[in-house]
Specification:
By secondary structure, the chain is an alpha/beta fold. The protein folds into two domains: about 120 residues, Aspartate Aminotransferase, domain 1, CATH 3.90.1150.10; about 240 residues, Type I PLP-dependent aspartate aminotransferase-like (Major domain) (Aspartate Aminotransferase, domain 2). About 45% of the residues lie in helices and about 15% in strands. The chain contains 15 helices and 13 strands. Strand 1 and strand 2 form a beta hairpin.
Length: about 400
């Protein structure tokens, strides 16, 4: 039975977003994700907003591996892991992830969102305390909402180490304290101050969790992530990350941690117990993506040089880009409608760079988020700069 109040409410929201210029456009892409894609009704555009940091989404070896996964195991497991959904390619993938990010073990999920929802309610004890950076990703925030009500949850201002230390002091009576931070902050493009955070966690005997979804494949000479960038490889207790960005771009996520943490997650985490396993095609393609990076780290170097070219080029054009080694460059606009208008203008100029507005970022902090890829050639970089110069 249709519900007229509900219909009215949804129609009002959509029309108010339309009238205020805040309605997000959805473009239909009719080609694989790569620097130049075809958009239905528009034609070719240069993509500057995919998480395809290493250009592996259409890499021939990654695509071929996915096809092989489909041939070897069919469309999917038709089961969760503990019933009959664990394939040997899951185990191989998980060994690869653990060695790639530097932990003893790992467990895959159908997304990093799922991984973050698995982690907190399962590993955090009811009397523990969790200290979380204010700008952590939405999946961390939602994952924390699933913890026992008795957990002492504290949010510290973004990258404020003095506040973090005082919270560590305040929570000394809890059996385990957890500090959780993004490695690379997805909306700001800045990097967590890991050396200081690791030191604080050691000093106060706290567990450190780093979500490195935008760091893995991107930071460090070998693309292993934020900890490699800071020479802290192997020193993070728990890492979560996605396979849906630099590592092939399909989907999937992981928790990488100690053997015992992973065993507990296998036994107790609700997304592990009640949701299907990662499709084999994704397990194969993500595995291959890590092999491609290991065999040819020059793609990571190419990403780093493209990032430097973008940051310098945009700064020379007068855009305010804070220095950072990451591939995320937010161009702050402020007003929601203005950010969407500017993004539409870039689109007219043949560049896809989406405007981010509420609720993705706080009200009044709308921005265009530029994301750099190793797959961009010098000509693409020039094309981008020409468009931004016109903007
Ligand atoms: C920091 C962070 N964590 C988790 C996720 C979720 O990743 P997935 O797409 O695999 O669910 C994202 C995706 O945007 C992210 O930026």
């Amino acid at each position: 039975m249709p519900n007229s109040q509900f219909d009215q409410r949804t129609a009002e929201l959509i029309s108010s977003l339309t009238e205020s210029g805040q309605l997000k456009p959805f473009y239909d892409i009719t080609s694989p994700m790569r620097p130049i894609v075809n958009i239905a009704g528009k034609g070719e555009v240069l993509v500057l907003c995919a998480n395809n940091y290493l250009g592996l989404a259409d890499h021939p070896e990654v695509v071929e591996a996915g096809i092989q996964g489909l041939r070897d195991y069919g469309a999917g497991t038709a089961s969760v892991r503990f019933i009959c959904g664990t394939l040997d390619c899951h185990r191989r993938l998980e060994e690869k992830i653990a060695s790639f990010v530097g932990t003893p073990s790992s467990l895959s999920y159908v997304s990093c969102w799922n991984a973050n929802e698995a982690l907190f309610p399962t590993l955090v004890g009811p009397d523990d305390a969790v200290l979380s950076d204010a700008l952590n990703h939405a999946s961390i925030i939602d994952g924390m909402r699933l913890m026992a009500k008795s957990v002492n949850k504290k949010i510290f201002p973004h990258s404020d180490l003095a506040q973090l230390e005082s919270l560590l002091q305040e929570t000394q009576n809890h059996p385990t304290r957890w500090v959780i931070t993004d490695g690379v902050f997805s909306m700001e493009g800045d990097v967590a101050q890991l050396p200081e955070i690791v030191a604080l966690c050691r000093q106060y005997d706290a567990m450190l969790v780093v979500d490195d979804s935008h760091g893995v494949g991107v930071l460090g000479k070998g693309g292993r992530g934020t900890h490699e960038h800071f020479d802290l490889f192997g020193q993070i207790d728990v890492m979560t990350g996605t396979l849906g960005k630099a590592l092939g771009g399909a989907a999937g996520g992981y928790i990488a941690a100690s053997e015992s943490a992973i065993r507990v997650l296998e036994q107790r985490a609700r997304p592990s117990l009640f949701s299907n396993a990662l499709p084999a095609t994704v397990a194969y393609s993500a595995h291959k993506a890590m092999e491609v990076i290991e065999n040819d780290p020059s793609i990571v170097a190419r990403l780093h040089s493209n990032v430097a070219a973008f940051r310098t080029g945009l700064a020379d054009l007068g855009f305010d880009c804070t220095p950072s080694p990451t591939a995320i460059i937010p161009i702050m606009i402020g007003d929601e409608a203005e950010a969407i208008r500017k993004s539409a203008r870039l689109f007219e100029l043949g560049v896809l760079a989406i405007g981010f507005a509420f609720p993705v970022v706080p009200r009044g902090e709308a921005r265009i988020r530029v994301q750099v890829s190793a797959a961009l050639t010098d000509d693409h970089v020039q094309q981008a700069m020409d468009a931004f110069a016109q903007l």
